[in-house]
Task: structure prediction
Amino acid sequence: MRPRKSSKVSSGPDRARGPLQPYCGLVRLTIIGCSGSFPGPDSPASSYLLEAEGFRMLIDLGNGALGVMQRHVGLFDIDAICLSHLHADHCLDLTSYWVARRYAPEGPQPPIPVYAPERAAERMALAYGLEPDPGMTDTFTFTTLTPGTRRIGPFLITTRRMNHPVETYGFRVEHGGRIVAYSADTGPCEALVDLSRRADLLLCEASFLDGPGLPGNLHLTGRQAGEHAERAGVRHLVLTHLVPWNDKECSFAEASGTFTGPISLAVPGQEFELTPSGPLPM
Result:
């Protein structure tokens, strides 16, 4: 699979690219933000745009991501949002998106679904200084995530609990015979291998560099990301959640020592297109 750097830059919704046409079967993944724990000088925090059959879904919306998102999609063209967990670097820009949708010049935008861990509606309201009732429920329809499988638009979504100090879900997204998996934040865990089994692409966090004394139930190193991807039989590994103070090339080298397939470092604006049939380009 060959990542494609996006050349489509938009200053607003009226200049954003059009959605993938219905029934074309293609899945497009765009990296909006891939910085780990906090925004870096060249990337906002975690956010990923998935598109298929004219449907646009965000997985995570970390701090700084809403601005960059508008380079790739119209501000009000998102159909659903999934939040892996409620740490700020994965969800905080939902508060800014509430402002944009609630106070748009042409009037409040229709509510869209937000799939998130328990108490997300309350936590997001408090983050913006709102009372939890009604909070943001005039703009977002919150659905509590649990382990299992559900349909969101054209996507079949499987969620599993990851190994992180707060309730955190990894995602397996299937459409047109193609599979994209996302680790969210996690330490080593068997659930990630199961969730990523035979995925065409795995977005896997690589927050730590190898060294002594690393916490065991918080994040992965590049080496551990490669090990999980190799065990799962993943076709393409994309390292993400890259903490700004780490050397990304070291993370890449660590993963290269344990994963035998193609590896990419996530970069904002990077696109991956997965076709519904035939071999993927390498």
